[in-house]
Each structure stands twice: as structure tokens, then as C-alpha cells.
Write a structure and sequence with these properties.
single chain, seven-stranded mixed β-sheet, two-stranded antiparallel ribbon, 6 helices, 25% strand
Length: 160
């Protein structure tokens, strides 16, 4: 099932040839996965835009995620910004380490109605929603469905 999902992510990648040129980049794979997670998520109330906030120490990962800005997800423009502790209107939050996740949680009483995506092993156990991690040489993801439901979000069956 997982290989089929990875093919689905590759086929749905918004940049097509750009992804082919950068197919070996782990950062590009993660960005493609993030974009597709957005396509398979439903928020209870979202205006005409989705805001993706990035908390990462990897300049290449930040750059690749920022390249998603302006793409559309079900008619909603994607805005990409770097996370700031006072940020209150992120519909999506991407973090790349346990340290950064703990900083986010310490600075906010709750991450509600925000799809949280973490790129480190153990993110789902730490209360995050979608964990992207390397395992046995491949990139995989795990979903913490109770946390997704607690936040009032809905993931489409194609993702599950």
C-alpha cells in the first residue's frame, strides 16, 4: 500500500519536471508529501487560503517548502511562512526536530485546528499528527489519527 501512495504523491506533485530533476533530494520528497497531505485534509473552516508555517533548521528544506507558495489546494491559495511563536493562524505546521516541536508547544497553549507534520522519528508519539521519517532507506509516514480527530480535522480515505 505504501509504495502505491508514494507513486500517487509523485504523480500529483505540482512541479512535475522540477521533481524529476530533484528526485534524489529527501527535502523534495518531504515537500511533495506535505503538499499531498494538504490535498487529502479537510479543515472545518478555512477561508480562501491555507497557511503553511515552517519551523526548520534546514535551509534547503525551507527553500523547497517555500516553493509551494502560490499553489492551490481545492481552490485555496497556499501561503508559506516561517513559523514565529506568536503565529496564531497556521492551518499547517511543519517541524523538523523534537526540539522545535517542544518550542512550538511551549509557546502555545494548544495547536488546535492545525495539521501538524513532523520530519523526525517519534513525532506521532510526541502528539503530532503526521510523521515523516526515514526507515530502512525509504521515506515513510505515520498518522496519529486520534490527534487529527481531536483537532477537528478530516483526512480523506485515500490518505489513510
Amino acid at each position: 500500500m505504501l509504495p502505491r501512495l508514494l507513486v500517487l504523491f509523485w504523480l500529483a506533485w505540482p512541479g512535475g519536471s522540477a521533481f524529476a530533476q530533484d528526485s534524489a533530494s529527501e527535502q523534495a520528497v518531504r515537500a511533495a508529501m506535505v503538499f499531498n497531505f494538504l490535498k487529502f485534509t479537510e479543515w472545518p473552516t478555512v477561508e480562501n487560503r491555507l497557511k503553511l508555517c515552517i519551523s526548520s533548521g534546514d535551509p534547503r528544506q525551507i527553500e523547497v517548502l517555500e516553493n509551494l507558495a502560490g499553489k492551490h489546494v481545492r481552490g485555496q491559495a497556499l501561503i508559506v511562512v516561517r513559523f514565529h511563536p506568536r503565529e496564531t493562524d497556521c492551518q499547517v505546521l511543519y517541524v523538523d526536530s523534537r526540539y522545535r516541536w517542544e518550542e512550538v508547544l511551549a509557546g502555545r497553549p494548544a495547536v488546535s485546528r492545525t495539521l501538524t507534520i513532523g520530519a523526525y522519528g517519534g513525532f506521532a508519539w510526541d502528539g503530532g499528527m503526521i510523521e515523516i521519517a526515514r526507515q530502512e532507506g525509504s521515506t515513510r509516514f505515520d498518522i496519529n489519527l486520534p490527534e487529527v480527530r481531536r483537532a477537528g480535522l478530516r483526512l480523506y480515505p485515500q490518505l489513510l
